[in-house]
Amino acid sequence: MKLRTILMGAIATTAFAPLALAEGERGRDGEVKIIYWQAPSIMTPYLSGGTKDLEAASLVIEPLGRYDETGALVPFLATEIPTVENGGVSEDLKSITWKLKEGLLWSDGTPVTSADVKFTAEYCMHPEGGCAQGAKFDGVDTIEIIDDLTLTVNFTEAKPNPYGPFMGAQSPIIQAAQFADCLGAKAPECTEANFNPIGTGPFMVTDFRPNDVIQLEANPNYRDPSKPAFATVTFKGGGDAVAAGRAVMETGEYDYAWNMQLAPDVLAKMAEAGKGKPISAFGTLVERLEMNLTDPSPDLAEGERSTVAHPHPILSDFKVRKALSMAIDRELLVEVGYGQAGRPTCNLVPAPALYASDNTECLTQDIDGAKALLEEAGWTDTDGDGVRDKDGKKLSLLYQTSTNAVRQDFQALIKDWWSQIGVETELRNLDASVFFGGDPGSPDTFQKFYADVEMYANNFDGTDPQAYLAAYRCGNEPKPSSQWQGENINRFCSEEYDALLDDLSRTGELDKRGEIAKQLNNMVTKDTMTIVPLVDRGRVSAASNTLGGVILNTWDSELWNIADWYRIKE
Q1: What band does 16 get if pLDDT is binned at 50, 70 and 90?
Q2: Per residue in 8-40, is it b (16+ CB within 10 Å) or e — as a string?
Q3: Bridge partners of residue 98, in order along the sequence
Q4: What percent of the residues of the chain are helix, what percent strand, and what percent coil, each to the nearest 5?
Q5: Domain 282-538 - what CATH class?
Q6: What gap in Å lies between CA 466 and CA 460, rounded to an integer?
Q7: pLDDT in tens, 83-108
Q8: Which of 57, 69, 451, 557 makes a 20 to 30 Å CA pair with 366?
Q9: pTM of the model
């Protein structure tokens, strides 16, 4: 059966075997100190699309299965990864049955059951909840509890890739008892649960200070009595990438620093101090521009800004969006920002190769072509001030991103290139903890998108991009009724795109899946320029020379195997 072929790809059929560690008592290595210069604002990926929040939460709450450093599926809370071959996935591909490991306990000592797993789906799928990971549950019909340790997820139609729900750090299991009163619109109001989730992971929160510091201690009910090796975690947030890198590689104050978004020469200089080293790997992380297809004008009433009811007065024009992309020199951006840790790209999905389009059109900067396209669209400089206008409106844009040296360098370069084609650009940078936070009351989140253009990067769990591409389905945009949660950041909507998504969900033969995914990628990039990819970024972090067990993983949470970390004895 051709539909089975995806179920054979990138799946580890044997249980995950972590690095061998010196035997000893849990907590034997004392404290480990982690620094994320983008500070977590919440401890659940279901109420935030920010990587910082997702990865902090992964210390505490876990999925049934994860993706390892090669992209292979490996069981965590489940006994094995279900497949057609082992009977876990039905012959018609319309259901998947998961079995929990026996004896699993929540950190409060109560048993983990299939009811918790079912509740997790109900929590995210609630129509008023605004779940930030809703695409993970795309196509789920019902969830049937077989017994305390077994449940079946039923899909509305054949699901060749049934590993959306409960796989990877974006879809962890939450405790039904703790979140019982947090369904729907009440979800953001459950501060205690959102800041201090009861989990199955190696650590549990003892003190959570939003946008600042998280203190954690070893989970006494963790399933391996010899892990974690560390008794406590100090998870520091805030500052900037330079300070974080120095804290690990120069001063040795911290053990691990995430997301070293720094120029190559800066990283090399820090490593010379001898306290730590940068580590890197490529995955699917793309630095990009999102073009707002809705009007973010403050002249509109609150609740109407950046909503589909009001199309963008400038960026609704494809020719304008394309001209903005044509003006950019991606090779120079890579040279300035990432060196060998970056590659220019025109794709939202740059990997794996099966799903990567051969789209290279954007790689050549074309200032003259961009000017001609704007002229063709009716944007001319009628008063000679260097800024184009049309029907009395200036071609002026607000371009925002998070505060970071590399991103501000990119902003400065892009502003200059856009000025060369007659576009006036106002730059704004926002504290990353706020920009990537999920506060529905904040005007400054990337989901709310109160700007014309914004820049950031994210990626997807595992190697299959179906759920990632499903983010741009009609209706999945952040809006007041969803507590400003949602993954369709630029408010793109196309019936043709949605139909292709449905085709992808029904297709099992890998080559055909690859072709459909490439079409979807091209629709939001090359064909419409609603997303303007810039750089395929390698994931770069920094680890202390005394920290063992670290395996950088670009397919899941970067902290996916922290239970296996340990202190190297000198």
Answers
A1: very low
A2: ebbbbeeeeeeeebeeeebbbbeebbbbbbbbb
A3: 151
A4: 30, 20, 50
A5: alpha beta
A6: 9
A7: 988 999 999 999 999 999 999 999 99
A8: 451
A9: 0.74
Q: What six digits make up the tokens of 21?
A: 């560690």
Q: Is the Cβ–Cβ distance between 73 and 462 less than 8 Å?
A: yes
With a CB cutoff of 8 Å and minimum separation 6, the contacts of 527 are none
Bond before 228 cis per omega within 30 degrees: yes
**Tally of CA atoms within 13 A in the half-sphere of 395 that contains its CB:** 31
* Encoded tokens for 542: 């920094």
Residue 150 neighbours by CB under 8 Å, 6+ apart: 97, 98, 99, 100, 114
Of residues 423, 442, 436, 429, the one with CA closest to residue 400 = 429
Q: What is the largest CA-CA distance in the chain?
A: 76
544-570 CB burial, b ≥16 within 10 A, e <16: beebbbbebbbbbbbbbbbbbbbbeee
Residues 291, 396: Cα–Cα separation, whole Å = 13
What would the pLDDT profile of 505-557 be if each residue is shown by its tens digit?
Answer: 888 887 889 999 999 999 999 999 999 999 999 889 999 999 999 999 999 99
What is the enclosing helix (H) or strand (E) of 241?
helix 241-249
CA distances from 207 to 90, 192, 216, 219, 522 (A): 44, 11, 7, 14, 45
For 28-31, the CB contacts below 8 A with 24+ separation are: 28/229, 28/231, 29/229, 29/230, 29/231, 29/566, 29/567, 30/230, 30/231, 30/232, 30/567, 31/230, 31/231, 31/232, 31/233, 31/234
Q: Where are the domains of the chain?
A: 282-538
Choose among 295, 348, 265, 252: nearest CA to 542: 252
CB 541 within 8 A of CB 521: no
Helix (H) or strand (E) holding 517, with range, is helix 510-524
- For residue 262, the one-letter residue type is L
Residues 312, 216: Cα–Cα separation, whole Å: 45
The two structure tokens encoding residue 103: 């004896």
Cα Rg of the chain, angstroms: 23
Q: Which residue has the tokens 């703790």?
A: 178
Task: With H, G, I as helix, E, B as strand and everything else as coil, classify residue 155.
Answer: strand
Q: What is the dihedral of CA 303, 305, 310, 312, to 10 degrees?
A: -160
The per-residue pLDDT for range 52-64, each reduced to its tens digit, is 999 999 999 999 9
Q: Which helix (H) or strand (E) holds 147?
A: strand 140-147
First to last CA, the chain: 55
Upper half-sphere CA count for residue 353 (Cβ side, 13 Å): 0
Q: What amino acid is encoded at 272 in this protein? A: E
Q: How far apart are CA 13 and CA 197, in angstroms?
A: 31
- Nearest partner of 524 among 459, 469, 464, judged by Cα: 469
What six digits make up the tokens of 119? 């509740």
